[in-house]
Design goal:
12 helices, globular, alpha/beta, six-stranded parallel beta sheet
């Protein structure tokens, strides 16, 4: 949830409902950035951009509603987030800079660094989060995730081919252009200038692309750099089939049970 867009009570009630329906299976990830372009941000909530300045308070309000733990002198202490229940969703802070990492450490929350957004500085942010972590009722030890973009294919040539769609999309984002993800064929047919190719090459630092062996090695290297407890993988290609295949190959490379690569079915989850 990009928290500046929403009231703390609204977010708490939505996720308390999820938790009531699926106890112990719900995570609430909280981000601070507006996301998308400024026009869309203002259409969602004209005051959202100004709300970034009170993000730390907003997070604590959300926790207070989730856990019925607002201080007695808080103006809305008597308001309860419903439905009530014995458990509460796990809360993560997501960030691509040091701000959310520092806040997560201060509040004793798990932290996820968005490497797929910012390829530089994440390891230092993760180490600082661990160093400065303050135990809380929500966590006695630091817990860190790195969120990484990856494309996996049987051959490096096929992986490069599939990466054409995200290469084009990131070039468009650098220009401030909006649009749908192009198919692989559309992206491969796109002509680029030398300057545009330089932008694409720079953006590639945010991704791990290649064969199962190459991607696995790259992910393990990032895990070590971040001292990460887990990785979250995001894959975007020009079609659903190749995206699913990428996840299946990656699951196989890590020996995950039930990956069923090549079956045409979604992998089972454990």
């Amino acid at each position: 949830m990009l928290l500046p867009y929403y009231s703390a009570l609204k977010v708490a009630e939505v996720f308390r409902m999820y938790e009531a329906l699926f106890p112990g299976r719900i995570d609430l990830g909280i981000g601070r950035a507006p996301g998308g372009n400024l026009l869309t941000a203002r259409a969602l909530n004209a005051e959202a951009l100004d709300a970034e300045d009170r993000f730390a308070v907003h997070v604590q309000e959300t926790l207070g509603y989730l856990d019925d733990a607002l201080p007695p002198d808080y103006p809305f202490h008597a308001v309860k987030a419903m439905p009530s229940g014995p458990t509460s969703p796990q809360v993560w802070l997501l960030g691509s800079s040091d701000y959310s990492g520092a806040l997560a450490g201060h509040l004793g929350l798990p932290f996820s660094f968005a490497h797929f957004i910012s390829a530089h500085g994440g390891a230092a942010v993760a180490r600082a989060y661990r160093r400065d972590f303050r135990p809380s009722y929500r966590g006695s030890e630091p817990y860190c995730m790195a969120a990484v973009f990856a494309i996996c294919a049987q051959t490096s040539e096929e992986a490069e081919r599939l990466a054409a769609s995200i290469d084009l999309r990131r070039l468009q984002m650098a220009r401030g252009q909006e649009g749908l993800i192009a198919t692989t064929e559309e992206a491969l047919a796109q002509p680029y200038s030398d300057a545009e190719r330089a932008v694409i090459a720079k953006e590639r630092a945010r991704a791990v692309i290649g064969t199962p062996e190459t991607v696995k090695a790259g992910l393990l290297q990032l895990k070590e750099q971040f001292e990460a407890d887990e990785l979250m993988i995001i894959t975007i290609t020009g079609d659903y089939t190749s995206r699913l295949r990428s996840y299946q190959l990656l699951a196989e490379s890590f020996g995950l049970a039930g990956s069923r690569a090549g079956s045409g079915q979604e992998p089972s989850h454990s």
